[in-house]
Specification:
alpha+beta, 4-stranded antiparallel beta sheet
Length: 244
């Protein structure tokens, strides 16, 4: 299994049906005539709101809701809409068969290792969206279906250093491998965003990648460190959507 991150060209995934069937002109807006037939499908949505007092923390909620609610919101939302909905990490195996078929397992994955897939998920939203600094326990192959996104990836030690500094500022010690809603709201979210995007991060940022529609990114799990104890050196990454 490769241990270094890599950006893959558009030609790697030239035949993903979702990139054509899920979106329409003006590009890229959601194809409601196609996706709307799955409006009753329950799906996990994240709700955030920044329409608050300047010193108030953003509101964040996560709940199961019909997919149609997201489609109706997306049809009238723009980059300045303070209330945001986001389809976050929706498992493909819980979607209707037609939508699963629109995102087949890439051949490059089938030929890697044993060809097994631990999990496969999809994210859908209207820019701007933002995923805080985190690390994943498994290798990832990320495919941009539409729009444009930037990923900043930190070396394992640098990512752990940033995470530890933020936790110290909050006066607590928590595991970096098991994260919950706390990274999406409150002071932790703001401190992580500031460290990665707004402070002088030249010493931290190992790689910054801009992904256009059809491009993809391999994010490795890292390498096993021995002999002191077996720990995974996880690559940390943060994601921001620049265009829908």
């Amino acid at each position: 299994m490769p241990s270094l991150p890599a950006k893959l060209p558009k030609s790697t995934f030239a035949t993903i049906p979702a990139s054509v069937k899920w979106f329409q002109e003006p590009w890229p807006t959601f194809n409601s005539s196609y996706l709307g037939q799955f409006g009753s499908q329950m799906i996990q949505l994240e709700f955030t709101s920044s329409d608050l007092a300047p010193d108030a923390a953003p509101v964040f909620h996560r709940a199961e809701a019909p997919f149609g609610i997201f489609l109706k919101w997306a049809a009238q939302a723009d980059t300045k809409t303070p209330q945001r909905l986001y389809v976050a990490q929706a498992p493909l195996n819980r979607l209707p068969k037609s939508l699963q078929d629109d995102i087949p397992t890439p051949e490059i994955v089938l030929k890697a290792g044993k060809g097994d897939v631990y999990d496969a998920s999809t994210w859908l939203g209207i820019a701007p969206t933002y995923t805080p600094l985190h690390c994943d326990p498994n290798p990832n192959l990320y495919l941009q279906l539409a729009g444009r996104k930037v990923i900043r990836m930190l070396q394992p030690d640098a990512g752990q250093s940033v995470f530890a500094a933020v936790q110290s500022a909050l006066g607590r010690q928590v595991s970096s491998r098991f994260r919950g809603d706390e990274m999406m709201k409150g002071r932790e979210n703001g401190l992580l965003e500031a460290e990665v995007w707004h402070h002088e991060t030249a010493a931290h940022v190992g790689l910054e990648v801009n992904l256009e529609a059809g491009e993809s990114m391999f994010i490795p799990q890292g390498q096993l460190v021995v002999p002191i104890k077996a720990v995974y050196r996880l690559h940390w990454h943060v994601v921001a959507v620049l265009e829908n």
